[in-house]
Amino acid sequence: MRSFSRVDQGTALAEYDLNAGVNSTLLVAYNEYKYTAVVHKDLGNVPQFQAVGGQINQVLLNLIVNAAQAIRSQNRDAPGVIFVKTFTESGHAVCEVFNDGPAIPADVAVHLFEPFFTTKPVGEGTGLGLSISYDIIVNVHKGYIGFTSDDTGTVFRFELPLDGVD
Ligand SMILES: Nc1ncnc2c1ncn2[C@@H]1O[C@H](COP(=O)(O)OP(=O)(O)OP(=O)(O)O)[C@@H](O)[C@H]1O
Ligand SMILES: [Mg+2]
Questions:
Q1: Beta-carbon neighbours within 5 Å of ion ligand 2
Q2: 110 is a domain residue
Q3: What is the 10 CA–ligand 2 centroid distance (Å)?
Q4: Are 22 and 43 in contact (CB under 8 A)?
Q5: Which residues form the domain of 54?
Q6: Is residue 1 in a domain?
Q7: 87: Cβ below 6 Å to ligand 1?
Q8: CA 45, chain centre distance (Å)
Q9: pLDDT tens for each residue of 70-126
Q10: What is the CATH number of the domain that holds 92?
Q11: Cα of 90 from ligand 2 centre, angstroms
């Protein structure tokens, strides 16, 4: 668990194992989703690559907590589904976090990565999770983060270059 946040390692780049990051983040977040969703994983063959591991794990945590909160917002009787998938594509390590919660309306979608944008009740969300995630993936790691959303659910996807950051 000590390896999860890596306070000791700060912002240093090091070899990072994305699948191990997913597994440790799911352990850390367990209390957040255990009554809300069943989690499925499909962790593919992703080589290690240079990254600030504690920051990528923070992104994973933000996405998984958001997924659980989205499902919970529907107050359903039965648990929802969170699906975490990793794979390699075009020289990138890719991670997708799906949840079968509500569609994100178009007028909300355009603001999602803005700092302090939240639709959650006061005290529940600060609206920083996705703006920090964007900063970590795009600015620090020269990667990509985006999402698609419709009535069947929402998928957040990030991509990180396997040849690392300069
Ligand atoms: N998986 C999702 N499904 C539906 N809406 C989402 C999802 N993820 C994020 N959102 C929307 O994007 C907004 C911003 O998300 P973000 O993670 O930046 O902030 P937050 O979750 O509200 O607060 P914080 O992450 O700081 O606790 C959320 O308030 C919510 O409206
Ligand atoms: Mg959040």
A1: 66, 129
A2: yes
A3: 22
A4: yes
A5: 12-161
A6: no
A7: no
A8: 19
A9: 999 999 999 999 999 999 999 999 999 999 999 999 999 999 999 999 999 888 889
A10: 3.30.565.10
A11: 28
70 falls within a domain: yes
Q: Structure pTM? A: 0.94
Query: From the CA of 109, how far away is ligand 2's center (Å)?
Result: 14
Q: Is residue 2 part of a domain?
A: no
Q: Which residues pair with 85 in a beta bridge?
A: 42, 96
User: How many CB atoms sit inside 10 A of residue 121's CB?
Assistant: 7
Domains in the chain, number = 1
| Ligand 1 close to Cβ of residue 148 (< 6 A) | no
**DSSP per-residue codes, 78-123:** S-EEEEEEEEEETTEEEEEEEE-SPPPPHHHHTTTTSTT---SPTT
Which H/E stretch holds residue 14?
Answer: strand 14-16
* Contact 62 CB / ligand 1 (< 6 Å): yes
Across 4-18, 32-46, 69-83, 117-131, least confident range: 4-18
> Is any atom of ligand 1 closer than 6 Å to the C-beta of 108?
yes
Helix, strand, coil content of the chain in percent (nearest 5) = 35, 30, 35
- For residue 2, give the H/E element and its range: helix 2-5
